[in-house]
Amino acid sequence: MAVKYRHALAPALAIAAGLVFVAQPAEARKKKDLPPPTGTLIENVSGLTPDGKGGVERFEALLIGEDGRIADVYAANDKRPERVAYKLDGAGRVMVPGMIDAHGHVMATGFARMTLDLSMTTSLDEALARIAAYAAANPELPWILGSGWNQVTWGMDRFPTAAELDTATGGRPAFLERVDGHGGWANTAALAAAGITAATRDPAGGQIIRLPGSQDPAGMLVDNAKALIEAKLPAPRPSDRDTAFAKAQLVFLENGVTAVADMGTTIEDWQTFRRAGDLGNLRMRIASYAGGVDDMVLIAGPGPTPWLYDGRLKLAGVKLWLDGALGSRGAWLKQPYADAPGSTGLPMMTETQLGNLMSRAAIDKFQVAVHAIGDKANSTVLSAIDELSNTYKGDRRWRIEHAQIVAPADIARFGEHGVIASMQPQHEASDRIMAEQRLGPNRLTGAYAWKSLQNAGATLAFGSDVPVEPAKPFLGLAVATSRQGVDDQPPGGWQPQERLTFAEAFSAYTSGAAYAMFAEDQLGRLAKGLRADFLFIDRDPTTASPAQLRETKVTETWINGVRAWKADGSTAPTGAPASR
Ligand SMILES: [Zn+2]
Predict the structure, then answer these.
(1) Taking ligand 1, which is a single-atom ion, which protein residues have CB atoms under 5 Å away?
(2) How many A from CA of 165 to the centre of ligand 1?
(3) What is the pTM of this model?
(4) Which one of 6-10, 271-275, 343-347, 483-487 scores highest in mean pLDDT?
(5) What's the rounded Cα separation, in Å, for the pair 338 and 354?
(6) Which of 119, 186, 227, 274 has a 20 to 30 Å separation from 208 between CA atoms?
(7) Ligand 1 center to 5 CA (angstroms)
(8) Minimal CA–CA distance to 323: which of 224, 434, 417?
């Protein structure tokens, strides 16, 4: 039997959420013609919401209807409704809309929690020690898999090698993804399993890093070369995927993220989301962008799906990859890398191929999101959008994912055709030193240029790119308003002219991100008629310093007017939860 995503609040669930049943006066009960009271009034909150025009509005109470939508919002002196079914005293706590992560990788986030996490390692030796310990603790695993390492954080100016990895893994194959997902580190057994030798050519859009002075593979596989190994990995079983998805949902909920744009959904990912939806275990909202035109058609057929499971899942469009990342020198640049003068990066397709794929999606009204990191990649997408806009008219909301390095001359072009700049503030803090090495000092004017792109007329939609960066929107808000990392560096902020106000950054993580997924009439603000997705947090973010902002704790996460997560560990029971 299909699980119905109910709206009538079950009494047990209401009491678990701290709601108080409102007893009706005897006279009211006697009047047979009076309908039973409905709705939940949450009073005495310090409410903050984007106003949809770039500012922030305050309120003190919120009425949730039986349909999980906001029935009304009340400022200090507004009259409250007389008859409601439940009341909750907010005790003055700060309430904000659920954060929306405009760019994440949902299944990879879950799988990262099931494999070896090297994201906290600060040296190669520390990483090798962790890998050896993990290998010893998991003797049954046929492959050692993991992710999150970064040679820049290790203080190395080269990639680690297969021989180094062999010292920790012995003869068992191992493959460890680099933090940006654009490269992987294989040991000798993994290279052998994939048949990669000195004679193997680099695949299109990929590179097999070679040992100095030879053709022998060194162990590092960049961009499309990763697929040589990935094809040999044991495929996760459907039950593994379900476990990973459950872990991923928890990551988002505990960080106050109520909706995410999943960038690169495969048919297997989609089926995992659907299985959860069918069983009532789909707790958050996901707007999927299929990982290519083939998956797009396989998942959705003739056009984007409607929102399914009471607004929790839809296939919105397609994600296309035009280039790689800066860290692995895959980003496509107009001029050669400052630290690799022979290379301008790894475009994954030609301009014509890109135009054809965008056209294939747009003709059936799928939304198009293109990954573009280098300045050449960004100008190429902008040109494609310019050309396609002649044919595909109307509200298209073309998305450029990352938009990291934009040539100053191209910034104004973001204002044309309603382009959405889907950017990740945490990347700026993590990558700025590496970006200076890759580009040199004179090509950074349009790097992570949030303010300039916004001024040019682009809609900003902010996200984390989780698992590349943690799915922590309050960390992102701190970076967005300070241009400083968790170490408060550099003093005064990096390229501080690109800093945003709190209201601007807050909007990019809420109403802007909702707009970017065609959901601004449902999500992103706390206003009448929108979904009651909100958080309680432990401080007022409008008066917090960057350091205080990144320490913000989410204490409760509510979706569709029902508490989906609470910091003390109690979550809505699955099976009928998120439903309501
Ligand atoms: Zn990404």
Answers:
(1) 263, 465
(2) 26
(3) 0.87
(4) 271-275
(5) 27
(6) 119
(7) 30
(8) 224
